[in-house]
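Try this one yourself first.
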């Protein structure tokens, strides 16, 4: 469809999609500032709107413009301007985060934001699982799996910059750091694990993941300690010493590692200290 000026007129998007786009771009912590939103609206000729917060303000402005023009052109143009790569020359991780989050929304209407920051055609998903698959984002899949926040806190920046090598290193550090926080012990590596997870002189670990009253539970505690030692040996020690060139980590391997580390943190959530 074209308008009187010969420009393509794109069909209006569902209101829920526009609102979700506004939620991403005007996110309280990670989104555009109120000033940036105002300047972009003026730049592309969309009237500002009232709202109790940035997300409502942007959502109302985009929805009102779409309703008046009966097209999604304004929304598409706002996304393109907000996602122009030149804006993120010094913050490539912010660009990756916003693009991934937008693509989780746009995949439901068969669109995506490409590397140039423009809205383009893409795969269509009708379920959240399909959206995670087509959005092609490691963060999307980690959220779908409910990855423990302690894991994400240590490696999100590395994930956003597509650095699986250092993401595996930082994520593995999270477990050792968590044990130090739980116990106040300043040791590291195997010495730390032996000190806080293995039975002491009284037969009770300082950090116990079960009651330790049966042979099975005692074996589980020892296995838990051995698992953390193994993860440190596989992903923390080699990556700390070997060049990335000689220690590649694929996205699939990273995903499996982060899922395992998430399980470790969940056991520590309910551990007795």
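Now uncover the answer:
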């Amino acid at each position: 469809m074209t308008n009187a000026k010969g420009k393509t007129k794109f069909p209006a998007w569902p209101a829920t999609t526009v609102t979700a786009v506004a939620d991403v771009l005007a996110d309280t912590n990670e989104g555009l500032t109120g000033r940036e939103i105002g300047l972009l609206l003026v730049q592309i000729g969309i009237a500002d709107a009232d709202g109790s917060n940035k997300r409502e303000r942007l959502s109302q402005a985009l929805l009102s413009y779409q309703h008046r023009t009966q097209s999604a052109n304004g929304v598409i143009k706002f996304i393109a301007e907000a996602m122009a790569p030149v804006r993120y020359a010094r913050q490539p991780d912010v660009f990756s985060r916003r693009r991934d989050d937008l693509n989780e929304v746009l995949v439901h209407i068969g669109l995506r934001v490409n590397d140039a920051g423009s809205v383009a055609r893409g795969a269509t998903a009708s379920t959240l699982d399909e959206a995670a698959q087509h959005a092609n984002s490691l963060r999307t899949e980690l959220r779908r799996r409910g990855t423990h926040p302690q894991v994400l806190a240590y490696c999100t920046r590395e994930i956003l910059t597509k650095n699986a090598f250092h993401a595996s290193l930082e994520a593995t550090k999270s477990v050792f750091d968590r044990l130090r926080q739980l116990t106040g012990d300043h040791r590291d590596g195997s010495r730390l694990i032996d000190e806080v997870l293995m039975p002491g002189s009284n037969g009770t670990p300082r950090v116990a993941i079960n009651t330790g009253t049966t042979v099975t539970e005692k074996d589980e505690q020892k296995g838990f300690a051995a698992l953390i030692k193994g993860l440190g040996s596989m992903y923390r020690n080699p990556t700390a010493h070997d060049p990335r060139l000689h220690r590649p980590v694929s996205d699939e391997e990273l995903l499996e590692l982060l899922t395992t580390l998430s399980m470790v943190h969940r056991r520590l959530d309910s551990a007795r200290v």
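Discussion: Strands lie at 111-113, 119-121. Residues 215-241 form the longest helix (27 residues).
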